[in-house]
Design a protein that fits this description.
Helices cover about 75% and strands about 0% of the residues. With about 160 residues, it is mainly α.
Length: about 160
């Protein structure tokens, strides 16, 4: 396993730690928010939680909280991509209720939401390409881009915590 300098590892750990905070909040909220949700709303909440688990697994392997396993990282990136496509289809008109944190902006600005999902898909594809190299270092920048894409969409199209 190729290791960077102490400074690089410290920086990577700091970045992953910062990214882990919203992820941990999301995972906790997802578990609470699922209670009582049904149909497509429950399904998309589950898919979002699965994407968060993939991000957590990759992030922990990149920041050293778990040993880097190239095969597991690639599998998590591929699962993230598969769930990205599922999620993009789970926001038909009229699928918001008190269980969902999807903002009305999803439907009021559908072009903007679809553009966010397209950017997310492209970022995840780049992550897969990097993961296919089997090199953790080459995954760091694409992983950060996926995280930025998640954050951007959540800022624009997810309601704040109730």
């Amino acid at each position: 396993m190729k290791r960077g300098s102490s400074r690089q590892r410290t920086r990577a750990t700091l970045i992953a730690g910062i990214m882990a905070i919203p992820l941990a909040i999301f995972l906790g909220e997802a578990a609470i928010g699922h209670e009582g949700a049904t149909g497509i709303i429950a399904a998309r909440m589950t898919v979002m939680a699965e994407m968060a688990k993939s991000m957590k697994a990759i992030g922990e392997s990149l920041d050293g909280r778990r040993e880097f396993n190239a095969g597991a990282a690639l599998a998590a990136a591929r699962a993230l991509h598969q769930n990205c496509h599922i999620a993009s289809e789970q926001f038909p008109t009229g699928t918001s209720d008190h269980h969902s944190r999807a903002s009305p902006a999803v439907w009021e600005n559908r072009d903007g939401f679809d553009a966010e999902m397209t950017r997310f898909d492209a970022a995840v594809k780049s992550l897969i390409v990097a993961a296919e190299t089997g090199d953790a270092e080459s995954m760091r920048a694409p992983f950060r881009e996926v995280g930025r894409s998640c954050s951007s969409c959540h800022e624009r199209f997810r309601l704040s915590e109730r």
